[in-house]
Amino acid sequence: MKSIKVGLLGIGTVGAGTFNVLKRNQEEISRRAGRGIEIVMVADLDVARAKELVGAQCEVVNDGNLVVNNPDIDIVIELIGGYGIAKDLVLKAIANGKHVVTANKALLAIHGDEIFKAAQAKGVMVAYEAAVAGGIPIIKALREGLTANRIEWIAGIINGTTNFILSEMRDKGLDFDTVLKEAQRLGYAEADPTFDIEGVDAAHKATLMAAIAFGIPVQFGKAHVEGITKLEAVDIRYAEQLGYRIKLLGIAKRTPHGIELRVHPTLIPAKRLIANVEGAMNAVLVQGDAVGATLYYGKGAGAEPTASAVIADLVDITRLADAQPAHRVPHLAFQPHSMTDTPILPISEVTTSYYLRMHVADKLGVLANVTSILAESTISIDAMLQKEPALGETQTDIIMLTHQTQEKNVEAAIKKIEALPTVLGKVTKIRLEHLS
Ligand code: NDP
Ligand code: HSE
């Protein structure tokens, strides 16, 4: 059978990885796909570098339009990134009746509904396994493997760069900027690394997972997003002393009132498997009503791990290219007419546990004042750590872990605690999840 023809937009980290893995494992891949998969055209701004990477075997151009308008091409892989030219080219490819594979979570988290609608109307597939958790087949698991389940919640370490930074800072005592530079050198970070460190990239991925887990539209704008830039080393240390690790988690949770969609540093019990996911590794924990908890672990970033997911999509599309559109897996797992508009809850309505650290004057009654404010706010304390003041010091830290409560309760209590004359400065609040 004639091989399927592929056009590649962008041959940077993931593009080069995809080209190389496809070439190296060509035979194995076509035995699985049922026919050859051939990249016949590559578009990149740096034509000379691209030619060096692909050799003489395929055409290299500097304009992606030549790829998406090429009538010989069946599948377009978009690996440029961002929502500018990438969106334009993806929509043009769809309009030209081509299937699309993309790793671009930013594009899909913002414009996914428009892109999937266009693809649906045209009867083509848009596959995006590489957009969430790099090489881990989490989209496949959520859309297909867990299809019998009512998904209750998902919690994941879904940004390799920030997990790498947290691990290296903790284990090697390196500073933030040094580790971020190393993550960039290794090809983990986004073109704009603030997307990684401010939690935006993880929120893009959590948004996509929430959509396919709960059958809701893609709503990045409603996600609560916090990164790791405000996290202090002292809290990582205190968390460890209390038996917890701090990880940047992406969380999507079904509640009776709506859906929680949030990304923030989170304390997790150190004994959980996911708390021990280090470096650029990712892990996603999914709780389904029938299967219980399942955990997916692997490399969340980098050239070949991400290429693994891109090529899995190429194979899926190759197998299904001639199938009736209605027989394919829906883009967001649920049939388009069966999506619901379950609301995404504002962060003030979220219910979870909290780590609170306050710096206090070491005076009689300070602890009693704090605990009575918490009691008045119906917040119960799960654990507490009071540090001895250093020699000659008259101030110290108190750390409290609370049981579950609503965010707005905690915020109101913190305001009162900060107003106490014995509490010095701001209270540090970090959310805590037991993931049990
Ligand atoms: P890179 O920046 O390494 O690669 C992007 C490539 O696209 C570069 O070669 C760039 O050329 C080229 N490019 C830019 N503009 C155009 C254009 N107008 N036409 C053609 N080519 C263009 O990014 P990555 O490979 O790291 O990421 C690609 C996508 O994959 C992104 O959406 C990213 O979020 C996603 N992703 C990345 C992962 C990773 O580990 N890196 C993991 C999972 C997803 P030039 O360099 O000359 O500007
Ligand atoms: N910048 C992303 C990360 C790449 O660090 O996880 C993978 O999506």
From TrEMBL:
Molecular functions per Gene Ontology: homoserine dehydrogenase activity
Organism name: Herminiimonas aquatilis
Q: Which UniProt keywords apply?
A: Amino-acid biosynthesis, Methionine biosynthesis, NADP, Oxidoreductase, Threonine biosynthesis
Q: In which pathway does it act?
A: Amino-acid biosynthesis; L-methionine biosynthesis via de novo pathway; L-homoserine from L-aspartate: step 3/3; Amino-acid biosynthesis; L-threonine biosynthesis; L-threonine from L-aspartate: step 3/5
* Keyword set includes Amino-acid biosynthesis: yes
Q: Which positions fall inside the ACT domain?
A: 355-431
**InterPro entries from the UniProt entry:** ACT-like_dom_sf (IPR045865), ACT_dom (IPR002912), Asp/hSer_DH_NAD-bd (IPR005106), HDH (IPR016204), HDH_cat (IPR001342), HDH_CS (IPR019811), NAD(P)-bd_dom_sf (IPR036291)
SUPFAM superfamilies (UniProt xref): ACT-like (SSF55021), Glyceraldehyde-3-phosphate dehydrogenase-like, C-terminal domain (SSF55347), NAD(P)-binding Rossmann-fold domains (SSF51735)
Q: What CDD domains does the annotation carry?
A: ACT_HSDH-Hom
* Cross-referenced PROSITE patterns: ACT, HOMOSER_DHGENASE
E.C. number(s) listed in UniProt:
1.1.1.3
Main enzyme class: oxidoreductase
Q: What is this protein called?
A: Homoserine dehydrogenase
Does the entry feature the keyword Transport, yes or no? no
In the record, the note on similarity to other proteins reads: Belongs to the homoserine dehydrogenase family.
